[in-house]
Amino acid sequence: MTTIISSLTLLFLLLAFSTHIFGLPANWFIIAILALWDWLAPDSTLSLNTLLIFAGMAFAGECIEFWLQAIGAQKYGASRSGNWGAILGAIAGALLGAPFLFGLGALAGAIGGAYLGCLGIELLNKRPLAEAKQAAWGAMVGKVLGMAVKIGIGIFFLVQTVDLLF
Q1: What is the DSSP string of the chain?
Q2: CA dihedral defined by 91, 97, 101, 107, rounded to 10 degrees?
Q3: Which of 47, 111, 139, 148 is deepest in the core (most CB within 10 A)?
Q4: Within 13 Å and on the Cβ side, how many CA atoms surround 55?
Q5: What pLDDT, in 10s, does the model give residues 55-78?
Q6: What interhelical angle do 48-75 and 80-97 show, nearest 10?
Q7: pLDDT digits (tens, 9 = 90+) for 105-161
């Protein structure tokens, strides 16, 4: 019975990980599935410390994503308001892009939204187009790097949990 529960858990973990593509909080889904597995599996070796470490890493991943986007925008000359425009644009872009390409549009929407959000705010701040485009580019690159960090943390979770499951 434990092998069946572990196999199903692994399947759900992989499905949860794939939600990174849709801009959803995949790492938090992974943690929730692991907590449920720990509760259901009679011979689970998952400790509360492991779950807390994973939660800390997931939180750090979210912070790093926003930080990299902010640093990228700042490095390329974005103002504080332009950076906030990039953050809000990424969220709006992910939401607006979600219905397209079977949900894959959320990823492109988040990246494009970071660019357009920063660009729009910088242009509203009366910055020259070339400077606004440069700042928006930095916000977009930072968003991509931040997403890569979060996906990397999710891969780490999967690798660590395979050993725990079987």
Answers
A1: -HHHHHHHHHHHHHHHHHGGGGT--HHHHHHHHHHHHHHH-TT----HHHHHHHHHHHHHHHHHHHHHHHHHHHHTT--HHHHHHHHHHHHHHHHHHTTSGGGTHHHHHHHHHHHHHHHHHHHHTT--HHHHHHHHHHHHHHHHHHHHHHHHHHHHHHHHHHHHH-
A2: -30
A3: 139
A4: 10
A5: 999 999 999 988 998 898 888 888
A6: 120
A7: 888 898 999 999 999 999 999 999 999 999 999 999 998 999 999 999 999 999 998
